[in-house]
Amino acid sequence: MTSPAPDALLGPADVRELAAALGVRPTKQRGQNFVIDANTVRRIVRTAQVHPDDVVVEVGPGLGSLTLALLEAADRVTAVEIDDVLAGALPATITARMPERAERFALVHSDAMQVTELPGPAPTALVANLPYNVAVPVLLHMLETFPTIERTLVMVQSEVADRLAADPGSRVYGVPSVKANWYAEVKRAGAIGRKVFWPAPNVDSGLVSLVRRTEPIKTTASRKQVFAVVDAAFAQRRKTLRAALAGWAGSAAAAEEALVAAGVSPQARGESLTVEEFARIAEHKANQHQEKEPV
Description:
Rossmann fold; 2 domains
């Protein structure tokens, strides 16, 4: 593998020049904040433990700061970009700055939430600076759609990072925490300051590492069934589970029955439960439905 030129990555002046040439003004609507620091993108790639044989998918590559750093380290990179202008310009940026790796880059011009397949070999890693306003749904969609993704490292708003990596009992533990944990072991993997972005956001950013579970959660309930319980439990998070799950179960008494069968106190609240406990609750209702179905 030929090593890329030392100046192949984008610096602050490069990012601004590229943006000016394309007439791009970062928009709040799409949560666009471009990384302008080469050391930061290399740190992200290191933290993501990208290997030379990895096939990496990146969501929201923007002008290509992180994309170039990923191409330095991975076997292949596929970038998913929704913005027409940015998607149109990225291949030319890759060819100009890293011509020896250009054939190992692919672009998918689409909304990441609509992507169900990718060109080339199956992805082994997801590394992305996710737009703050859609970070959690995009992350969960990608983990569900591409089970070959073993390792994920995303940069998100610090508050979102805290939620994703929260443990049961934490004040910020909620739907994102449980659903991310369904797929992976999740942990905070560092903080990112505001000055490495253009424009500088009004919030701090954090890195979250997700390593896919080698063994899926053991349950007879489906992902949809488990997630339905999670959504119901946190829709009214201040209520006891007996009350919060009444609508899901059909009545408070039926909710209590499902909770007791799962070994969970009806007086508990959603924020105290592990993903395995949510799965046991879902299982009880799923089993009941199977029993009622005519043979």
